[in-house]
Amino acid sequence: MSDNIPDPEKLRDLDEKLREARGRAPLPREETPPSKLGIAFRLSTELVAAVVVGGGIGWGLDRLFGTSPFLLIVMFFLGVAAGFRNVVRAAGRLNAPDPPKRGPGR
Amino acid sequence: MEQFEIHPIVPLQIGGVDISFTNSSLWMVVVAGSIALLMTMAASSRALVPGRVQSLAEISYTFVADMIRSSAGTAGMQFFPFIFTLFMFVLFSNIFGLLPIQALTLGNFHQFTVTSHIIVTLALALTVFFMVILVGIWKHGIRFLTLFVPKVPWVMLPILVPIEIISFLSRPLSLSVRLFANMLAGHTMLAVFGSFVVGLATAGGVFSVLSIAPMLAIIGVTALEFLVAFLQAYVFAILTCIYLNDALHLHDH
Prior knowledge:
Chain A has 106 residues and is mainly α. Helix content of chain A is 69%, strand content 0%. The chains are: A mainly alpha (106), B mainly alpha (253).
């Protein structure tokens, strides 16, 4: 640390250069644009995961209570609904990636 | 396929449980070691005008810090060490899997993508999952459970609460499967195109000339894989932030 005490003169110089450089090219401060493939993959996993989890819970409960296949059917459809909910949520996030401005629609 | 095979380097058994040090473990050590090395090297100079290594470390710091602030607010910054570690581990695992180490003929030591195995990504995702639950309970106590109660007329609740719970439980699965499947698919794609090259080249005649086409495709796919490697690490980290944000701020956002 001690061996590189900044020279104020040099610092001012650097500051000048920095300002100049910034003026020349506005910094591209945007978020990494998610690729189309990435979006498609994200949404599909959201959907599939919820269906699998819903179906899995239904299957497990059926085995537990011996009510096969009713809970599996019910939970499967709930899983599908949860999947849609996930997808809508994820898509909403992609459309409005700025959380403070995220409206009630989420 | 060979690039996904796990073989023990130091066979080890404790109480009938196989805990051998495998090539997968070795690569995890390599990944963690490289990150630690990079960060210590970067922090040691502490120059006002950063050099290359320091710039790299500073860029990754700012990147992750910005990501947390924008998706989980300043309250999320207390989890910076966790998310930064997670991001760097996934990123380095993904990228190290793309290094052509086998081409350098280091004997049996060939490249391996840690994140192309679901058990690894699932372990990471479950860590995130349980941490979100613990943070939620720590911050809000029993009120954390209102995360599963959306603000709707009460008639809808019997249907919507199970849906919310399933949606919550599906998070570790979608988080892990996404990363694992992307890595697996990328490496499989490279292997398939590679076999096309060999197959066409040895077919003789006009086919040998055609083998240049899958070769060009491999170049493109490799470039794409670098993008995917970064993108998936980013997605994994930002979803962790979003889940933490849910636990930190329940409904008030």
